Amino acid sequence: MAERIPLVLLPGMVSDAAYWQAQIENLSDIVEATVVAFGALDHFGAMAEMVLAQAPARFALAGHSMGGRVVQDVYRRAPERVLKLALLATDYRRPASESARQKEVREREEMLALAAEQGMEAFARGWLIGLLAPQTAQHPDLVETMVAMIARHSVRELTAHTLAALRRPDCTAVIDAIDVPTLILAGEFDPLRPVSVHQEMAERIRNSRLVVIERSGHMLAMEQPRAVTQIMREWLLL
Questions:
Q1: Beta-carbon contacts of residue 114 (< 8 Å; ≥ 6 apart)
Q2: Of 144, 213, 159, which Cα lies nearest the Cα of 13?
Q3: At a CB cut-off of 8 Å and minimum separation 6, what does 190 contact?
Q4: Stated pTM of the model
């Protein structure tokens, strides 16, 4: 049997290994998967250092949303350790203007206030409504799995991840420097990280492949697990 590929998986904000469960199970024949939990870290740089401390000497790296931002910081710090990259439903830019930043601050403050007042489960239900594809709502068991994943996290963790997002650097230079095989996945109906952002990344990254996951919103590895797993398998076996 061929040696399995070390694969480090980074979840998004207040998410965990449940986000990647289908990929962990169905890629186990070719990968040795590790999921890094960020706890209450409030800076992408600190998250990247945690990844590098836990990862093997060389590894493939995949990140969803906030985890995709951390992927970029890991690559900036230690490109020689990264075999290949996968960026799912993420971005590489800072807010385009001060007014855009202030708008984001207000939206995130409202989100935190809801979590503090009503709890993480209520926050999860309200937040997910705007993130998922219409078809996903027809699968209540899947939605409940997502709600439970988010509700396992604390308001403190949500606050920390929110602060990390607001502190995010512009990673244009990092994106332009990537020279390993890179998979870019976008959800067809993702309102948070639209396809157009992923097209920009694909144009900037040499040796990249962009795939739009049909009938998916922001939580694409959970919404369309079979499609995402198959595409990741192809990327890993390149």
A1: 122, 123, 126
A2: 159
A3: 89, 131, 216, 217, 218, 220
A4: 0.96
pLDDT at 129 over 60: yes
Length of the chain: 238
CA distances for 136 relative to 142, 143, 144, 157, 172, angstroms: 8, 7, 11, 26, 32
Which residues is 63 bridged to in the sheet?
Answer: 10, 87
Structure tokens at 136: 């996903």
The string of DSSP letters for 49-81 reads HHHHHHS-SSEEEEEETHHHHHHHHHHHH-GGG
Q: Which residues pair with 213 in a beta bridge?
A: 187
pLDDT tens-digit readout, 143-198: 999 999 999 999 999 999 999 999 999 999 999 999 999 999 999 999 999 999 99
Closest CA to 201 of 223, 221, 219, 174: 174
The rounded mean pLDDT for the chain is 96
The token duo for 74 is: 């890991």
In angstroms, what CA-CA distances link 59 with 74, 83, 164? 11, 5, 24
Q: Tens digits of per-residue pLDDT, 203-229?
A: 999 999 999 999 999 999 999 999 999
Query: How deeply is 30 buried, as exposed, middle or buried, from its count of CB atoms within 10 A (0-12, 13-18, 19+)?
Result: middle
